[in-house]
Amino acid sequence: MSKNSRKRRDPDDGSDSIEVKPKRMRYSSEENIDKENGNVSGSDTELESISEQLLSLERKLADELGKITFRLPIEYIYSPLEYAFNIHSMYVRKYCNTQKKILFLGMNPGPWGMSQTGVPFGEIKMVRDWLQISGPVGKPSKEQPARKVTGFECTRSEISGKRLWGLFQELCGTPEKFFEHSYIHNYCPIALMDKKGRNITPAEIKGSEIQILHSACDKALADTIKILKAEIVIGIGGYAEKRAQFVVNSHKLSAKVLCLPHPSPRAANNKNWSDKATKKLSELGLLEYFKE
Asked: Where is this region: Disordered (predicted)?
């Protein structure tokens, strides 16, 4: 257990929990922003580019989630928006400086994707070779021995990310074509694991923690949709679709919510995912946005 956390006994249910003391998060983008690169510093959102508005929103969300006390079995919390923020900010600034018609929404970071690169579904080779983004990545404050963060030195491949970005590489040819109308974003930016390193998804969390997490992530998603003026939100998997639908309804947004099957190899009947996803996009009338 890190020096920033301690165990306590929850008086409500008698279970052990991990109490994480809030700490000030340092982000590489808090240095002066180079206006010559098209980035505008200052807190006035009317003067900020879309990318800077999103990064400011994500910093706030990461800070809020960092204050949540997650009970056991959750023992490890990875926040790529903290230790890999330099890479994440490259992704946002490079590919999200315009409004987007379509917002693809993932659930949360995978151990070999965003947890390593700071990019949603960020399989190493796809981020480095297709998105042309790379650089140094830090470490979470408390690291699970079997799920170490080695950044772009990681030799593991996240199949979900390889499939998702690989689909759009095949359809679009270039990243610029994909991002002309679309963007990929995660609903929850933190990864959660038990003592043995087993991934615990937000869908598996019980108790008051999930209410706090949902409240923070829902508001951030609503603001993201507004900033991008997204007309269509595509949940990648059922959980992301459900949260998107709740957010659109509760905030009275005009965006339409759709669903794309999750590319995880663990999902049932998920062979030939690329063909199925392409067919789904065609049925939804969206394939034209991704064709070269």
From this structure: 1-45
